[in-house]
Amino acid sequence: MGIVEHIYEALLDDEALDALPRHLAEAVGARSATLQTIVGGAPVHVATHYFSAPMNAFYVANDVIALDPWIPIVKDHGLLNRVADADDYISRDDFRRGAFYNEFFRLFGDDTGVSLGAVIETRDGFVGLGLHRALSAPGYAPEDRATLETALPHLRRLAETRARLRKADAAERDIRAVLHGQSSAILLVNAQGRVGFANLAAEGLLASRDGLESSSGTIRISHALADRLSRALASAATGKGGDALLVVRPSGRPAYRLVVTPHRGPGALPGQALVIIEDPEQADPGLAQNLRRLFGLSPAEADLAVRLAEGWSLPEIADMRAVQPSTVRSQMNAVLAKTGSRRQTELATLLARLPRVRDFRD
What we know:
alpha+beta, 5-stranded antiparallel beta sheet, 14 helices, 21% strand
């Protein structure tokens, strides 16, 4: 396998990326190699060949790159994106007397001193490549430089592609975290009901097998609505429409509210339906705190609003608290005034529209 093939093997393979310095060193007859990807002035990946783990750790921990004469050579001589041989710009005696050699290589009994390399500009930063021989070794031949010149555009493409993949991975993690933080059950399924994604609320709901479940990765409904759900998924997956269902639960608990809709919008996957399921019994763990922050409710007033949202009546709340109904009515009037609601129905609508998030504390 040639050096270009080794470079592209490292696009998606971290082990191949870590092995790339060895292949680059072998291609030009070098003893050691360092390959650094630098973004925002800091290395995001450092791979080496020949150098020991303690040397690598010392290099990173002590910012040894600041001592490397290679960086000022590239800047002073306009060598960005070009192969350069250190022998052309600094004598070996000067290198031997310098801080980079004495405060790094000599500390580890190493005699590295002949370097061929390049600093390659990328969209997000730089790739730094150094290929080294011992101070007493012969210099690099023109064919060694030619070999490295051939590799430069491919190394740039490697770094930029991996940078895009890092960003995509980070964006996916962020999106998943947002979806997992929702208290509603959210699923992406295909026309046959095959689940491509389920947030934590959906996983818990399906695992309970109380009217809905996942069988071999496919969403199933446990009663006569099965055909209706299948038609809704098939329609939504083709972007034509969807449906809304009340899913009766064998446990006798309040029915799930299930909505099937096409998955639309930027980046939406074709052939997918979005399924959102609400459990009427699912309490909003942050509702009371949000009400206090948004409307200045007292703890007792916020608790009253939460109880109302859960379906309790004022007399029932008074019984639970062992207080007079007049006390609860007085608090109710305060809640209506602070939230700008004229009646309980308006308050119920306001409460239903407040954002809900999943509680991860347990």
